[in-house]
Every structure is written in structure tokens, then in C-alpha cells.
């Protein structure tokens, strides 16, 4: 197959004299390889890239609602593979694209973290009710190692 | 057929790997596209529920948020910019255990800003607790 790819490539893009000069050193070599390109390093590189992306892929399920985040000066960048909850301005809790109820939060965190102790990030709307936010944090803290509140980027 | 006949004398069995490469490329592109890098910024008010006995007897520094959007500390109304200095001055003795009590109807944005200002003032642990009616 290497021979096939190489042959095709060379016959379309490379002029014949160069190919002869590169590969036509001995009669037997020319017969054996026939101007082929070794594609195994390419496959190696592609496999390494593939494995890198498989390993680094963290499928974060977004809450599915866009909120107006509050301002903060001490905002810090949060962990990337965290479990996201959102609290909308209408005081509704969202997780994974659908509305959930307050008592479901510990169960959802347990489902989402799969024994890896993922941190929880709550995206709250700045006009949401603060008591509900406090209750959400209290529920999430029952099971999560850390609970953060997403804010705007500090200017 | 011509190529087959050509390679047969050298007695090498060939496997066509181009479908493999195609498949690997498709997988690669899928994972590149599916990898979502969610970059959130935010605050993390750490709070340990098991308070140590030394801080138990001392009431924590408390900010109360009313439904009308006022911040009360020790019964007096303060502005958002006063939170950080209050935390900074009282920080040393009460060891920065801040309690933010929120009334029903107060806004999460204000509560977050108070917590942010308290963190700016050097608070170590902040608890957000809802006030019952």
C-alpha cells in the first residue's frame, strides 16, 4: 500500500527525472520500492494527535441557559472540568440543558463527577434571588469539594 | 492487477491502510471539534462547616442583605465600597470568618459582589446563608 500511495503521489505531482535521481540508485531498489513515500511517520503523528485529543476531551455539559454574570474584582480562573449549574433571572435552576429542582443537586453532582470529586461552578444571574443561590451552594457543598460562583472577567 | 503482478515476485503481502488513515483522520477531527474548552472565571468562597472551637464562641463578622438591596452591618446601612475596609480592619481578631445573610428578595449579584469585596479585604472563609422570613 505504501507503494500504491507513493506511486500515485509521484506520478501526479513529481516530475519523472527527480524521481529517478532520488530513487534510481540501484536497479533492485528501484524495482522494489518504485518511488514510494514512507507514510508510517505520518500515521504515527496522527495517532499521537488522536490520543492527545481523546485524553484531553472533557465533555462539559453546559447548563443550557445564558445568564448575566455578576461583577467581581477578585475573580480567578476556575477548574476546567467542573460540573456546571445555572441560576437564571427567573429563579430557575438549570443543569445539562434542562431545568432541575433544588433537592436534585447532590444526586446530579454524584452522577456527573463519577467518583472523581469534580468541583462545582454555579453560573448565577445577577438578578436572581440570593437566598436560592445560598441554598444551591449549601446543597452542592454537601458533596462537592469546592463550589464557585462564575463572574464576569475583571477589567 | 498490473501492480499485483509486479509485487508478487518479491513475496510481500500488502495491506491497504488508506481506509485506516481515513478513519483515524475522521476520529481526530471529531475529537478536535468535540473538545470544548470552557473557561470560566469566578470566586470560590471557601467555607468549612466544622468551625474550630476557638471561633465558635465569637460571632462572625456578619453582613446582612435586605430585600431592598441595602447592606447592613451591625445595624447600620453601608455601601458596597465599605465592605472591604471593614473586613480588613476586623480581620485580625475574628480571623476572617465572614457570614453573609441574605433576605428573600435580595439579588444574587449583590451577594456575589459583597463576597467579592470581602475576599478583596482578605477574608478566608465566607458563608452565604439565607435568612428566614
Keywords:
heterodimer; A: 155 residues; alpha/beta; 2 domains; 5-stranded mixed sheet; 6 helices; 6 strands; elongated; disordered N terminus; B: 133 residues; Nucleotidyltransferase, domain 5
Please explain how this structure is put together:
The complex is a heterodimer of chains A (155) and B (133). Chain A is α/β, with parallel strands linked by helices and 155 residues long. Chain A folds into two domains: 2-56, no CATH class; 58-155, no CATH class. Chain A is 42% helix and 15% strand. Chain A is built from six helices and six strands. Chain A has a five-stranded mixed β-sheet, covered by helices on one side. Chain A is elongated, with a radius of gyration of 28 Å. The N and C termini of chain A lie far apart (57 Å). Chain B is an alpha/beta fold and 133 residues long. Chain B folds into two domains: 2-34, no CATH class; 53-130, Nucleotidyltransferase, domain 5. Chain B has helices at 2-7, 18-34, 53-56, 83-94, 108-120, and strands at 41-43, 61-65, 71-73, 76-78, 97-102, 125-130. In chain B, β5, α5 and β6 form a beta-alpha-beta unit. In chain B, α4 packs across α5. The radius of gyration of chain B is 31 Å and the shape is rod-shaped. In chain B, 28% of the residues are buried. β6 of chain A pairs antiparallel with β1 of chain B.
Q: Residue share in helices of chain B?
A: 25-40%
Distance between the termini of chain B: 87 Å
Supply the helix-strand structural class of chain B: alpha/beta
Query: How many independent structural domains of chain A?
Result: 2
CATH topology of the largest domain in chain B: Nucleotidyltransferase, domain 5
The low-confidence parts of chain B are: 50-55
Low-pLDDT ranges of chain A: 1-14, 18-31
